[in-house]
Amino acid sequence: MRPIGRLAMLLIFCCAAIPLQAASSDEAPSEQQAIEALEMKADQAKPRDQCFLYAEIVHRMTDLSLRQYASGNFAKASALLRQIQQTSHKIHLSLSQDDKRLKHAEILLSNTTFRLTELLRSSDYQDRPLIKQTISDVNQAQNATLMQVFQK
Where are the domains of the chain? Predict the structure, then answer.
């Protein structure tokens, strides 16, 4: 049983590391544009669609921030973490009784929290307060979303 556990951990690590290595500096502007387009779509969407769209934005920003940290661009990564905090607050404001894809939003936020926690473990000491605050904000959004799921 132990070799299977080690193999599973190795597989998880490899799957998480591949996107970080595969990203090039040319992909970052197009990904940033895609995030901005998704933000515009979320701001104009119906209230029942906004929660999921904001969760998708937070998820994509986290992926881009991880890639920025991996490439050594700490200023852009920190700016993205601040944007994640702002967008996670929008999730709180966009929760309503008839949300569409609420459970999917909660799953995205859970995955995002996990990724941010991994970033916290590998980050420099000076970046940790910002990352911890971002994790806290995303956790609060996830908890609010989860509570809304169980109220249905």
Answer: 2-151
